Amino acid sequence: MGKTMKPLLAVLVALAAVALAACSGTAADRTKIRIGEVTRSIFYAPQYVAISQGFFKDEGLDVELTTTAGGDKTMTALLSGAIDVALVGSETSIYVNQQGSGDPVINFAQVTQTDGTFLVSRKKIDKFDWSMLKGSTFLGQRKGGMPQMAGEFTLKKKGIDPQKDLKLIQNVDFANIPAAFASGTGDYVQMFEPQATVIEKEGKGFVIASFGVESGQLPYTVFMSKKSFIDKNSKSIQKFTNAVYKAQRWVAEKPVDDITAALMPFFADTDKEIVKAVVKRYKDQASFATDPIVDEKEWNNLQDVMQAAGELQQRADYGKLVNNTFAQKAIETVKK
């Protein structure tokens, strides 16, 4: 190679590097979005995929993920401005609306479309019937939370009065429910993953039914933000929703092994085979939403569940608390 060509080649390489950096952007170039997730859960697979597969970065966003541990704390963080976007159950936006907030919390991108809990029995049951629960001690979820409401909705649908037909235990903290059941509390328990699969693999219980399947589709976990934030940051919310949709399509199309690999950085302390089993269980029962649209029929089902639990003062206006324009645009514009 001639002497004159070497400097020229060096310049071309440098220019290519600059162009590549411009395409991917540095953290300083990207818009920061602070997400607060209600808990760390395999149930929220599309969110972790959007991070691990670089979909947020591709949209020019730098997301900061915090686990805010509980619906009340998550909503407090959102309302106070400690986070920009919350990943939490849609019922929390309805509770805020019931309190007469002047800055409503808007649901803009759905992530899960069923309840994520399972019915676990202490003993193996070959032919389970819901009537078997009558007269038993049932370890349930926290009153007022979506898992509890979906659980009670299912029990009533199966002809069981949770207050009269069961010895219902609801005073155990969410994080302590698996340990309480493992130590002998309750004949049956309503439990999230991966704890249900862990209990099953340890031989301390058996998954016999899904509350997600029985309670039907509803906007169980949704990305939401204050209306004022969305109004001021509509371009960023659109980019955010685009990334979520890319992740949803990726999860829908990829095999369980690929999804598991994408999730492992977020569940380093969980056995890979457990993660894989949970991903398969949720994927098989279509818990992961395949697009970000918050469907009105599902919204109404959510309010039916809340009403049955006595937690709804009056039905919330779908048009006031749901904004599907970002989801619709994502579906129309994200490349196939």
TrEMBL record:
Q: Which organism is it from?
A: Paenibacillus ginsengarvi
Decide whether keyword tRNA processing is in the record.
no
What Pfam families does this protein's entry cite?
Answer: NMT1_2
Gene Ontology annotations for the cellular component aspect, listed alphabetically: periplasmic space
Location comes to: Periplasm
Question: Record keywords: Signal included?
Answer: yes
Family according to the record: Belongs to the bacterial solute-binding protein SsuA/TauA family.
N-terminal signal peptide: 1-21
The name this protein goes by in its record: ABC transporter substrate-binding protein
Kindly state which keywords UniProt assigns to this record, in alphabetical order.
Answer: Signal
